[in-house]
Design brief:
D-amino Acid Aminotransferase, Chain A, domain 2, 15 strands, 9-stranded mixed beta sheet, 2 domains, 6-stranded antiparallel beta sheet
Length: about 290
């Protein structure tokens, strides 16, 4: 039976609980990472743990486990899972404390790892995704740095709800200046005249691990790649558009508010093939286990 990891112990799902007084539940006070595993091997685990550490440091949260201990915990959860490929949610909260925003009374942080299969946005969407531009705006970077992967995802949830009500697959969030930030749970790329473009982190996008890998692969394939601000008009005029993320991996976009795009396009197809080869090279059972 699939197990969860809570505060250093593997437990049954029914026993994986937190206190009602945990500040992660009460205020979204904590950080998390979503991690994919293939053939029971975590993909890019070291990068995820570095980002978790950086996010925790940014909110003055002391991690109760070092990266070596968290790596062991991830491996334990994957070994106990009832699926060969799946998704992990690793979270650290401020812990149990008094009602109110003061964190001084919080005790030991709460740590957990959940595991399960993943229904991706791209499932059943071979013809490409349909996107809408949400009225919900991305939290400004000067209010909360988008590189902090915190437990509070309310504006992302509201944007996704807009997409659902519009019959679309995903929402695009803009920043307060009207520039493209990211999808509700993914990074965004466009292709125009053979050049790959993605919004910079300074415009409100998460510093995505899959995003970084796609940019790395583009360099290896000789595909020009630029980080610069994007307008909605540029999305409409793009030759191709696709989303990237740990959960979604890579997914082509066919429609942005009625503007049709080539899906899958040639640049996306080349990058996706290279992406799959890279996953296989890092996680196939026939290769030596490697965390990168």
């Amino acid at each position: 039976m699939t197990k969860c990891w809570v505060n250093g112990e593997l437990v049954d799902r029914a026993a994986a609980t937190v206190s009602l007084f945990d500040h992660g539940l009460l205020y979204g006070d904590g950080v998390f990472e979503g991690i994919r595993f293939y053939h029971r091997r975590a993909f890019r685990l070291a990068a995820h743990l570095r980002r978790l550490r950086d996010s925790a440091h940014a909110i003055h949260l002391d991690l109760p486990y070092d990266e070596a201990a968290l790596t062991r915990a991830v491996c334990e959860v994957i070994a106990a899972a009832d699926c060969e490929d799946g998704y992990l949610r690793l979270g650290i909260t401020r812990g149990v404390g008094p009602l109110g925003l003061d964190t001084e009374g919080c005790g030991q942080p709460t740590s957990f790892i959940l595991v399960g299969p993943l229904r991706r946005l791209a499932d059943g969407e071979a013809g490409g995704l349909r996107l809408v531009v949400a009225s919900t705006r991305r939290t400004p970077a000067d209010c909360l740095d988008p590189r902090i992967k915190s437990l509070n995802y309310l504006n992302n949830i509201l944007a996704r709800e807009e997409a659902r009500r519009a019959g679309a697959d995903e929402a695009i969030l803009l920043n307060l200046q009207g520039r493209v930030a990211e999808g509700a749970s993914d990074n965004l790329f466009i292709v125009r005249d053979g050049v790959l473009v993605t919004p910079p982190v300074s415009d409100g996008s998460l510093d995505g691990i899959t995003r970084a890998l796609v940019m790395e692969l583009a360099g290896e394939l000789g595909i020009p790649c630029r980080e610069r601000s994007l307008t909605v008009t540029e999305l409409y005029a793009a030759d191709e558009c696709f989303l990237t993320g740990t959960a979604i991996e890579m997914a082509a976009v066919a429609d942005i508010e009625g503007h049709r795009l080539l899906a899958p396009g040639p640049v996306f197809t080349r990058l996706q093939e290279a992406f799959r080869v890279h996953i296989a090279a890092e996680t196939q059972p026939s290769t030596q286990a490697r965390v990168s």
